Amino acid sequence: MWSRGINLYLLSIEELVSVTMSLSGEKGRLEFVEEVGKQLDEYARPTGRFAWRDLLSDVLDGAI
Prior knowledge:
This protein is mainly alpha-helical. It has two helices and no strands. It has helices at residues 13-43, 46-61. The protein is elongated and about 50 Å long.
């Protein structure tokens, strides 16, 4: 594929989210958090909500 000009990049989900969130701006980040919250309200069990809370806390603390 390289000879055809097709580049493949492998990113972990953490790297992908980090890059996407940094490029999406404040509005994009807020919309993302709101949409995840809606999905959690509709589908998640309490353990999923706690995991999401912990992940957001780590992001806000700069651990991720």
